[in-house]
């Protein structure tokens, strides 16, 4: 294993940021390569502890000569967001200097060629970070961006061109659900990882061996040793299943039995009123059309001070908010409906 340090210049004199990169050299040039990063949204830590639990497994495989393809690991991909606090609260989703989401605005390249990337000396610090992360990841066959939601199941975002070829990955990781998408106008890291391959020859795109996905590891409070170990085992199984690591002791993944739905089927359920949220549902539960999802207490103690929210269609509760205070118009949850949402959204679901 080799460790290097990436440094990003700040936006004022005397300020810079750095993060470590770990590389495992594969023994077979024909084997798929893999890139894993966590905490692009710097406060989302389930992926960080999963990588921490994965590293000893990779080191053991390296010592035994079982790493076939190159592996690049970035355990904490966002030192800028990691350093941001406002009135004692960590702020890792948006860059405070530009107000840009750290997982938006990545360059969407026409081909998988790092020469097409912007100059890393240009732009603001968050833009330079995004360019640097793409430079590290482009060219790998497997690209995993580890995130988490507020409260939720473990699920993947997968481009339609990679499904169902990626079903083995979802099964290996023990994922509960897969959300399929086909449009990225916002420049997410996942979009920037797959879009360069959409208009290149098939022998370059290699969709049969390509993996690019945003992994949502449940909720932001699910930072737990047992879960981290389980997630690390899932990542390891994926790397074995795809031929990055050799391990004859592991069987091939079985069929994926979780929920698969297009992004257009998701109802986000904007809150009709501001107030305190009383949920009737939890992630993982199935609901019928018309079932009560939540009650918003907007005028406590007063007649008519509660507003109920009902399911517009039958489906699976994928996520819900971790905080119980809400403003009017904010989303209450993600309901993966059995059919297209009447309020279907394209691109990203949230800011």
List keywords for this structure.
alpha+beta; globular; Aminopeptidase; OB fold (Dihydrolipoamide Acetyltransferase, E2P); nine-stranded mixed sheet; 20 strands; 351 residues
Could you characterize the architecture of this molecule?
It holds the Pfam family AstE_AspA_cat. Its cofactor is Zn(2+). One of its GO terms (molecular function) is metal ion binding. InterPro entries: AstE_AspA_cat, N-alpha-Ac-DABA_deacetylase. Residues 31-193 form the Succinylglutamate desuccinylase/Aspartoacylase catalytic domain. The longest helix is centred in the N-terminal third of the chain and has 18 residues, at 46-63. The mean pLDDT is 96. Strand 1 (2-9) and strand 2 (16-24) form a beta hairpin. 20% of the residues lie in helices and 28% in strands. The radius of gyration is 21 Å and the shape is globular. It is built from seven helices and 20 strands. The chain is an alpha+beta fold and 351 residues long. It has two domains: 2-257, Aminopeptidase, CATH 3.40.630; 264-337, RNA polymerase II/Efflux pump adaptor protein, barrel-sandwich hybrid domain (OB fold (Dihydrolipoamide Acetyltransferase, E2P)). The chain has helices at residues 46-63, 79-82, 125-137, 167-173, 189-194, 202-205, 225-241, and strands at 2-9, 16-24, 34-38, 71-74, 85-86, 89-90, 142-149, 151-152, 154-159, 177-181, 211-219, 259-262, 266-267, 275-279, 286-287, 292-297, 306-310, 315-320, 325-326, 333-337. It has a nine-stranded mixed sheet, with helices on both faces. Helix 1 crosses helix 7.
């Amino acid at each position: 294993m080799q460790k290097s340090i990436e440094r990003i210049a700040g936006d004022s004199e005397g300020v810079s940021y750095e993060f470590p990169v770990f590389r495992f050299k594969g023994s077979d040039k024909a084997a798929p390569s893999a890139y894993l990063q966590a905490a692009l949204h710097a406060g989302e830590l389930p992926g960080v502890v999963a990588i921490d639990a994965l590293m000893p497994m990779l080191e053991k495989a390296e010592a035994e000569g079982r790493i076939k393809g190159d592996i690049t690991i970035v355990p904490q991909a966002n030192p800028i967001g990691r350093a941001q606090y406002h009135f004692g609260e960590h702020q890792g989703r948006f860059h405070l200097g530009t107000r840009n989401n750290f997982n938006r605005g990545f360059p969407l390249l026409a081909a998988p060629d790092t020469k097409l990337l912007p100059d890393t000396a240009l732009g603001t610090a968050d833009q330079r970070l995004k360019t640097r992360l793409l430079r590290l990841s482009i060219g790998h066959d497997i690209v995993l961006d580890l995130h988490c939601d507020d409260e939720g199941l473990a699920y993947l975002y997968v481009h339609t061109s990679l499904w169902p070829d990626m079903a083995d990955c979802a099964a290996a990781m023990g994922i509960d659900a897969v959300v399929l998408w086909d449009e990225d106008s916002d420049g997410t890291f996942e979009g920037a990882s797959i879009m360069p391959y959409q208009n290149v020859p098939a022998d370059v795109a290699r969709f049969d061996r390509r993996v690019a996905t945003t992994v949502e590891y449940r909720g932001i409070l699910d930072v737990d040793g047992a879960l981290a170990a389980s997630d690390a085992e899932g990542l390891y199984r994926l790397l074995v299943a795809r031929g990055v690591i050799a391990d004859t002791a592991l069987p091939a993944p079985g069929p994926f039995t979780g929920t698969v739905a297009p992004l257009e089927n998701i109802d986000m359920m904007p809150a009709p009123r501001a107030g305190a949220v009383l949920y009737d549902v939890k992630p993982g539960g199935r609901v019928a059309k018309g079932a009560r999802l939540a009650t918003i207490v907007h005028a406590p103690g007063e007649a008519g001070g509660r507003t109920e929210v009902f399911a517009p269609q039958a489906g699976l509760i994928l996520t819900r908010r971790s905080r119980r205070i809400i403003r009017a118009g904010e989303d209450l949850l993600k309901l993966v409906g059995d059919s297209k949402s009447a309020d279907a959204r394209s691109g990203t679901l949230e800011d």
